[in-house]
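Recap from last week: sequence in, structure out.
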Amino acid sequence: MSSPRLRVFRPLLGWIVASSLLFLWQYHRSQASKATMQFTVSREGLTRPIPHEATVNGLPYKSGQPCGVGWKKLVVQAGNAEPFETNCFVWYAGESFGDITLARTRGRMELDFSPAVESVQIIGEEEKRSFDNITRESLSLATGRYAVEARFARFSTERTVEVTRNQTSRVAIAVSLATLNLSSEPEKAEFELASKSLPNVSVRGSTPATLTDLPIGEYELAIARGDYRKRLPVRLTGPNSTNDLTVQFRYARLAISSEPAGATVHDGSKVLGRTPAQFDLHPGSYHFQILKPGYFGTNFDLTLSETDSRTLSVTLANVSFVEAIERARRGLSGAFADYDRALSDVETALQIKPDDENALQLKRTIVLNRHLRNATQFQRTRDFAKALAEVDAALALSANHTETLTLKGELEKAQRAADEQRAKAQQAAAAAQAQARRRQPEKVLHDNAGRLRYHELFESQLIRGTGSLDTARASVLRALGRKPEWKVEREEKPDNDTVLVTAVKKGFGWKQNVVLVAGEVAENEVVVCFKLFAFVLGDNVELSLRGITDESYKPSHPKYAPPTRASTVERNLDRDTQEFKKRLEEELR
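Predicted structure tokens:
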């Protein structure tokens, strides 16, 4: 049995043990939350850190994050790299892995060439390899895309190969080659043999020649002996076989004669001989010139084949005769034809070849066209009598000439129409002049009153009367001089038929301006038009050293009056206008 003293301390011991366990649990939780895994990630061949993904026990994780205490499985993955995986126990102090270097993912490339290549280059983003004179090769390469360039004796070919992780990519290039024995008759011909499809092959040389290591297929052969050139299709067949080709150069025959004889035959800058002559020429296109002093040369193009036998005969034109005819034709054409000079040139040509029908016909044409041209010129100046005389002279040369007969009809019709149009034009001009004269006073008023401020607010007035411009002017001045008198500020004559007068009348706090135009619009007929302006002093007039100016006034118009006075202002304006109009009408009687 326990002593009474021990029974007293038993609860205290239990509390101490429970407190210790709780403390230890709290300490474990706080320290375990600080446990981390530290690491950086790089890739084989690179010194800098690379983007990566990491998991701890299957959950996404970043270096330095809390991971807790206990057994952990760390997996690190990155592009183009083998994954890293490890199991470890993490204690409170955490775990540091330092730099984790991931191995580069790799694959294999199997090369197989037939026949053996002279050289091969393998070029990728991270690796480059080159080999000489190989048939087969097996390579371990970092994954990625590679360009494979294989060089054979006369050509090269390229392939693009993708190397994938833990896989084998095969590159097989097999080319069937043949040999060409090329000769020509005669020998010593220069040639170029070019393939028409891939692979690209081009070989130059001179015959005879033996060309080896040529891929079978379609070719084009360009071969030449001097200026004699040929283009032939060539097909190489049979792998590892020999093809034979002989190119024959055959020539064409050409005979050239001329009238007159003794002309020189040129081919470009080369002189071939004198007519009549025969030539042996290689097939092709030619540009011949036949030249003789005193005659125009003749040019012609000719294409000859190997089996051609041609005969050419040309007639050369006399230079003096042709030039005289050409001068005559130039004098006959154009807007400023010189018919006399043209006739003189035709006569010169007829002295060389008196019976030449073309020259005789040209002479008749010149004389006829001279009459027609003269008739057309008189038609433009509307001298129809002279134009008809020229037409009759032309009809004397060719009575049934269609153009001449048509022109004669046009001239007769135009003469009648001109007489009628002249009469109408005179009537229209007189009417237009009279209309313009009637409108002139209103136009002068509009032009002068339109320069004044507020002109659009006041209406124009028109009074008609009888008499002359002088009587109308005197009437206007008398009307202005009546009581209450207007002060004339301006009087002038804008033209022979109108008089412009401006006047002003002022009172205390108001003023009126008037612009009048008196005009004689017809025989013993006058009009007087005017525009009356009414103004009052503004509400906020400030007196200064300048006194009251035009800017101090505002229009006495309903638009500028208070709504309660608008109708009164309108009646006053209408009253003043009618009174002024009546004053003028009384003087114009």
